[in-house]
Amino acid sequence: MTDAEPAWTDQTAPSLDDFARLAESAFAGLPEGFRAFAGDVEFRILDFADSETLSEMGMQDPFELTGLYHGVDLSQRTGFDPSPTPRRVYLYRRPILDEWCERGDVGLSEIIAHVLIHEIGHHFGLSDDDIDAIEDGLR
């Protein structure tokens, strides 16, 4: 082993708190306008989606879901809506870490930013194609 190689024997996966800090940093790195539009969206970091969420999404493997927007997206809200449930973006740490390990070609912060953009895009009511176009514009 050379001095430039990391000693992987002393490395640990980021904890939920570490991951929250990485997510905050990734969010802060997004364009100002995009962050401003996110408004009062809350962010939650969990290891996995719960079984009820997976069932609602038609998924059995908890590693398939890296993030989820929960709430009424902006395109469907009106001024006459009753008090809506809080709008939240869930980031699922273990599936994101798994994707990062499997890919091996991008940094963890880049994958977290990708999931944030995707889920915040759902807050705006954007399609996956619209979200992909936004990401392409950031590169």
From TrEMBL:
User: What Gene3D superfamilies does this protein's entry cite?
Assistant: 3.30.2010.20
Keywords per UniProt: Kinase, Transferase
In terms of Pfam families, this protein maps to: Zincin_1
Q: Which GO terms describe its molecular function?
A: kinase activity
> Which SUPFAM superfamilies does the UniProt entry name for this protein?
Metalloproteases ('zincins'), catalytic domain
Q: What InterPro entries does the database record attribute to this sequence?
A: Zincin_1, Zincin_1_sf
Is Protein transport tagged as a keyword?
Answer: no
Record keyword Transferase present: yes
Name it.
Answer: Acetylglutamate kinase
Organism from which the protein derives: Brevundimonas abyssalis TAR-001
